[in-house]
Design a protein that fits this description.
The protein contains 23 helices and 28 strands. By secondary structure, it is α/β, with parallel strands linked by helices. Among the domains are: 222 residues, 3-Layer(aba) Sandwich (Rossmann fold); 117 residues, Immunoglobulin-like; 75 residues, no CATH class. The strands form nine sheets. Strands 10-16-15-14-11-13 form a six-stranded mixed beta sheet, with helices on one face. The protein has a five-stranded mixed beta sheet with strand order 20-28-27-22-23. Strands 1-3-4 form a three-stranded parallel beta sheet. The longest helix is centred in the last third of the chain and has 24 residues. The chain starts with a helix and ends with a helix. It binds beta-D-glucopyranose. The site of beta-D-glucopyranose has 7 residues, from loops.
Length: 756
């Protein structure tokens, strides 16, 4: 279809009608011109296609299909190929079901561990979240189905999500909350993006021209269309002016009417409507032209294959948090008791718009029954009053067994779209149960089901913990395979598990007064904060054990001095020194050792997953570029490298660094210099031009001060030259005249030269 020609044939009313949906999940058709509807569905961890009554909260039914692990579990695989495979699998399902756009992935940052939707998001780290999202998008779109990353942007809580105003400074916004979206847009090239409900710095995202146009399109090169989150549309005219394309859901007569009126009264140009419609139809056209010629049949075979993909991700995303004295895997001939409702009815997905109607959910009990295990319920997620009785039954039963495997986790009512958790605790009944069972002198293993961090007050008294996260339909089968060592748990945490909620940096400003959060902790979220404060955590970002062990040897960096226009290659050998085959997730962090700006001690700038058989060794390599060293400079409104020394760290987690290397990086970008009487000398010297002009004068002052110090028998006292240097550096340039170090006219001439 020739989109431009089609648009040129449309009446203003027809064009305006395309700016909103015809129902919950479809765009409008223009039958007169042969334009049909376009269907979109949630996402992100399965296909939630509704054929009957519709809603955006998971209230009504949807087609029966496969539920995959949620984003937090996918991120724990640190495996971009798997994230892409998930996208491809979902893309194929969309093709089979006639769906043109999938509403995912969700990639908001985990500012607080209690955000109700954290299970739907990847990480607290923007680099990891961006890479996983881009891979998922590439997968979905490889099938000619549009992906729609969401929720753009600074939508990091559920409380008053439709009205809250997130106040975020520019550096924090770009460095933390936008980086994952930027990577998703630049590397995944999504055909659409969903703007969030909230206001950002005072403006609703659906009307935020700075974000939807200046940043998204002009800075990052996004060329798809912007759709509102469901119900996030505000002023129709303001939306079009800001760069919004589609208001969902429909039908909604107000949007087209308001747009037509605005064109007629001259406050909106028809060209802008043409642009908005063209951007939607170009994507529609792309989906038609890129749709595979023939789709797989939607039969039991494809469902089985999709289930196998869900299983592969569930296995790869599970994180072994503790394994004292090699408690796991379970050895042959042991008498094993499964305790906990989740062994039979696992918690495997979150509630809300991502909720999938699973065709089949595996439970651990069914998969382990042939191994001769027994089961007791242990707790009742629906009724706490049964807690004491069920706990006593479990404790009595446990006495006859060698190993107690407790299936615990957050009930569905704890984690959902629409509200945040109150704390990071498991239900008290579960904590009591684990505590009592772990003091019986038996081997105790906890299998966790949770989409976000929980406190583990019993961690010291249990032998092992496997965190399954919310791992989709295959969760039960995956848990059994991992427990008995038929698969090796190799995932790592994509999010820090704090000791207690009040340790979290957003604690004092989450969810903000009246749901208006001020992101006062700035760039220090997740491990960036815990590391800098050296606060103990329950489990750090990037952490996870395995049934085998890996050694890291021979770290090399191909250059110890580069400019920010160059790249550096870092290599390291990883060696499986244990007796199980396994995957190691190798992480690369960078620190800026000489910055004049506040920077985290470690920032993830690379990760690689490598499969190694026992005794096998492989070389892993990373490429570092400007962004590996840069921070967002507000004077430049861009990422910027400050010349200086950096440390490159390679490790098995954020707090298990195995090797480091030093590198000097020279920044080649200049910060725009605007000097007045009050500009500090240090700020002038930080720029290339400032250094050229003021540098020699500054050196001369230092020399004179040192000479005078010597002449007066060190009159400045010990440390005098350091004192002199820092006092001068921190002085506004005009002050040079106040101290008679220069004449006022001379200072003015200097300022003029600097500003030229
Ligand atoms: C959610 C979106 C979802 C949409 C449609 C909204 O409530 O925030 O993530 O895609 O509904 O169901």
């Amino acid at each position: 279809m020739d989109v431009k020609e089609l648009v040129s044939k449309m009446t203003l009313e027809e064009k305006a009608s395309l700016l909103t949906g015809s129902d919950f999940w479809h765009t409008k058709a223009v039958e007169r011109l042969g334009l049909s509807q376009f269907m979109m569905c949630d996402g992100p961890n399965g296909l939630r296609k509704q054929e009957g009554e519709s809603d955006h909260l998971g209230l009504h039914g949807s087609i029966s299909t496969v539920c995959y692990p949620t984003a937090s579990a996918v991120a724990s695989t640190f495996d971009v190929d798997l994230a892409e495979k998930l996208g491809t699998t979902l893309g194929k399902e969309c093709v089979r079901e006639g769906v043109s756009m999938l509403l995912g992935p969700g990639l908001n940052m985990k500012r607080s561990p209690v955000c109700g939707r954290n299970f739907e998001y990847y990480s607290e780290d923007p680099y990891l979240a961006g890479k996983m999202a881009a891979a998922y998008i590439r997968g979905v779109q490889s099938q000619g189905v549009a992906a729609c990353p969401k929720h753009f942007a600074a939508n990091n809580q559920e409380y008053r999500r439709m009205s809250g105003n997130s106040t975020v400074d520019e550096r924090t916004l770009f460095e933390i909350y936008l980086t994952a979206f930027e990577t998703a847009v630049k590397e995944g090239k999504p055909k659409s993006i969903m703007c969030s409900y909230n206001k950002l710095n005072g403006t609703y995202m659906s009307e935020n021209k700075y974000m939807l146009k200046d940043v998204l399109r002009d800075k990052w090169g996004f060329d798809g269309f912007v759709v509102t989150d469901w119900g996030a549309g505000k002023g129709a005219k303001e939306g079009v002016l800001a760069g919004l394309n589609l208001v969902m859901p429909g039908p909604n007569d107000d949007t087209p009417k308001a747009v037509v009126e605005a064109v007629k009264d001259g406050s909106l140009s028809e060209e802008l409507i043409d642009k908005a419609v063209t951007e939607i139809l170009e994507v529609f056209n792309w989906t038609v032209e890129n749709r595979p010629a023939s789709a797989d049949a939607s039969d039991e075979m494809t469902k089985k294959a999709d289930y196998e993909t869900a299983l592969e991700i569930a296995l790869a995303g599970a994180v072994l948090l503790k394994n004292s004295n090699r408690a796991l895997p379970i050895r042959e001939g042991r008498k094993v008791l499964f305790v906990g409702e989740f062994a039979k009815k696992p918690r495997y997905q979150g509630s809300g718009s991502s909720h999938i109607n699973s065709a089949y959910v595996s439970n651990a009990f069914d998969f382990a029954v042939e191994k001769g295990i027994s089961f007791v319920q242990g707790y009742d997620t629906k009724n706490n009053e049964n807690g004491c009785r069920l706990r006593n039954e479990a404790v009595t039963a446990a006495k006859d067994f060698d190993e107690i495997i407790i299936f615990a986790g957050l009930p569905g009512s704890y984690e959902s779209e629409g509200f945040d958790r109150k704390d990071i605790n498991l239900p008290a009944e579960q904590n009591k149960l684990i505590d009592e069972l772990s003091h019986l002198g038996k081997k105790t293993v906890v299998v966790m089901h949770n989409g976000a961090p929980v406190a583990m007050p019993w961690i010291d008294s249990v032998d092992a913990v496997i965190d399954m996260q919310l791992s989709g339909d295959a969760t039960g089968e995956a848990a059994v395979k991992l427990l008995w060592g038929e698969a090796n748990p190799c995932g790592k945490l994509a999010e820090t598990y704090p000791v207690k909620l009040s340790d979290n940096p957003s604690f004092l400003s989450f969810p903000g007064d009246m749901g208006n959060p001020v992101y006062a902790e700035g760039i220090y979220i997740g491990y960036r904060y815990y590391e800098k404060k050296r606060l103990p955590v329950l489990f750090p970002f990037g952490y996870g054990l395995s049934y085998t062990e890996f050694e890291y040897l021979n770290m090399k960096i191909d250059s110890d001095k580069i400019t920010d226009r160059d790249t550096a290659t870092v290599t390291i050998d990883v060696w499986n020194v244990g007796s199980y085959a396994g995957d190691e997730i190798v992480q690369l962090y960078v620190s800026d050792d000489s910055s004049t700006f506040s920077r985290p001690l470690k920032e993830l700038k690379g990760f690689k997953k490598v499969h190694l058989n026992p005794g096998e060794k492989k070389t892993v390599s990373f490429t570092l570029d400007k962004r590996s060293f840069a921070f967002y400079n507000e004077a430049l409104h861009d990422f910027y490298v400050e010349s200086g020394d950096f440390t490159v760290m390679i490790g098995a987690s954020s707090n298990d660094i195995r090797h480091t290397a030093a590198i000097y990086v020279e920044g080649t970008q200049d910060i725009p210099l605007h000097v007045d009487m009050f500009t500090c000398i240090a700020d002038i010297l930080a720029s290339r031009k400032g250094k050229e002009i003021l540098g020699p004068i500054f050196e001369q002052f230092k020399k004179e001060a040192a000479a005078s110090g010597e002449k007066h028998d060190d009159a400045m006292g010990e440390g005098g030259s350091e004192m002199f240097e820092s006092m001068i550096l921190e002085m506004p340039i005009g002050t040079l005249a106040n101290f008679g170090m220069m004449g006022m006219e001379e200072v003015k001439a200097l300022i003029e030269a600097l500003n030229k």
